[in-house]
């Protein structure tokens, strides 16, 4: 699968503090963020081609300027209630472990610049709750934003499944 990755400066150093930028988006009542360096583009939701025998959270694939991009329904992946897509529903196209993928989210909020002091580690929720895909929790004003490690939202096995589907569609 062809992948175009734009190299950008990962962070800015301001005095003694490192700042990182995160694209924030909404799923239900919750705010999430992903490192802006993983985001290729934001696209309004359009129908995707469903692929049989794929995991339920895999909505399908989309032809994005000649590249077949697998599309993940993040609500389904996180076990959230499914809702009808609206005019605010978007696909955030990201690079996950060197592969281009899309994530369906309810809406995009904004780009936040976070200082290290504004970010706290993911809470320990016990061995039965996997929080390995959470980079941390950030405080911005009176909001909490869950910062995702986009490379860990899907397991290696899940990424292989998604990649296999996209590869077949690219042939």
TrEMBL record:
Location(s) in or outside the cell: Cytoplasm
Coiled coil: none
Main location: cytoplasm
Keywords: Cytoplasm
Cytoplasm keyword on record: yes
InterPro entries assigned: CheW (IPR039315), CheW-like_dom_sf (IPR036061), CheW-lke_dom (IPR002545)
Lineage of source species: Bacteria, Pseudomonadati, Nitrospirota, Nitrospiria, Nitrospirales
PROSITE patterns xrefs: CHEW (PS50851)
Span of domain CheW-like: 19-159
The protein, known as: Chemotaxis protein CheW
Originating organism: Candidatus Nitronereus thalassa
Pfam families: CheW (PF01584)
